[in-house]
Amino acid sequence: MTTSPPPDPTLLLQAALDGELDAAGMIEIEARLAADPALAAQYARLGALRDSITARASRPRAPDSLRARITSMTQTGGEAQAGQNGGQVHTAQVLSMTRPTRSEGRTAPRSNRSRWLDAPYRSLAASLMLGIALGAGASGLFTESRSGSDVERAIVAGFIRGRLSGQSVDVATSDRHTVKPWLAGKIPGATTVVDLAKDGFPLVGGRIDVAGATPLPTLVYQRREHQIALSETSAPAGENNSPPRRERRDGYSILRWTDNGRAYLAVSDLPAPDLDAFGVAFRRAAAAEREETPKR
Amino acid sequence: MVLPHLDDAYGLARWLTGNQTDAEDVVQEACIRALAALGAGVVERPRAWVLTIVRNTAFTWLAKNRPKTVMLTADEQFLEAAAAKETRAPANPEDELIASAGQAELDAAIEALPHLFREVVVMRDINGLSYREIAEAVGAPVGTVMSRLARARAQLIDRLGSR
Predict the structure, then answer these.
(1) Torsion sign over Cα A45, A50, A53, A56
(2) Cα–Cα dist A206/A179, whole Å
(3) Cα(A113)–Cα(B26) distance, rounded to whole angstroms?
(4) CATH 1.10.10.10 residue ranges in chain B?
(5) Which of A158, A159, A166, B28 is the most buried (most CB within 10 A)?
(6) Is the pLDDT of residue B2 over 80?
(7) Closest Cβ–Cβ partner in B32, B137, B142 for A94
(8) Closest-CA residue of chain A to B29
């Protein structure tokens, strides 16, 4: 966040009301309230609203039928978790046991709802959720060790999310001189941004993926109707220059390489040969840029 | 993990979807996701975690089943429109009316809020989450959460204060 000083007094009032101000902030706001009747009136009004909502707005309780269903789900989940690779197994178990329960008591307006339960949609939705969770920087949620595959998972999830939402970039521009400073303003260190339009990969823009608690600069390039998301991190020790390696994950092509001490990971829904061509073009352009830069 | 927070989870889903059957579906779906994600490790703040999953499930559900009622992508425009509406509103809401609003009025006023505003009010005043937890749940910076909350409350005050 920026350090611009005087925030909106309404926001301060509200933070005071919600118990989100520290002691110093509270002293300040109390002084302002004492000096400013209009502000004090606003504070009282916000307080009245808060009290009304906490006292009288609906707090629906979960129906017992739902509670029973969830209870049986969690029990099944617990058993499966004892085994290895629990995630996959117990999801399947949970599904198989909840479906009949759902269809028993209900009938009519369910037809399009049942599609929502289809497995492919579910896995897509789960990936989307993972993308959202990681994208939100919700890093403390999963206390897993951060290995290379976590980074990969985050990047693939970011890619899927971008494709699903139709908003794959935070800054949309084909001008690398716009993307680069935008990223530089958000992430320490310079990101390599090259123009590959003449190689058939126009730049769409840039975004920031988050793996664990680490923000990663990600560029998005286009090829026909496909996209390529390219994330850059620092290379692992002793791996300054390694040739591209191709992998697949969740049906997406991944190409990773290190170059001049930086690690690159490209994810795409393109066929593998096209992604290889992208890797070649990017490395060539990046090398050309490195030679050019010192002369300026 | 989920069960102790089931009422919170259901309450949030109920507020976001607007009816009981859909809320049950969303909670059930969220539980399936939560169970699947549990394999990934220990959860630090289970309640916020559960509510985050419920919130995301609800929005996925809304986007699929009621695309016209949710506005997620046109965020900027939408906030501007909301701000314009505020300035037109009468500046003198009755404090008495706000303090004495009954359940029906409160519920109707909260339900009238756009989803992005409604969720922050519900998470804050009904679920009692901190700004930080809300920010993580909705995937927005704390500052954005604060300004949405302020707008939401201004609209509620308008509506309840000028009955």
Answers:
(1) negative
(2) 6
(3) 11
(4) 75-161
(5) A159
(6) no
(7) B32
(8) A117
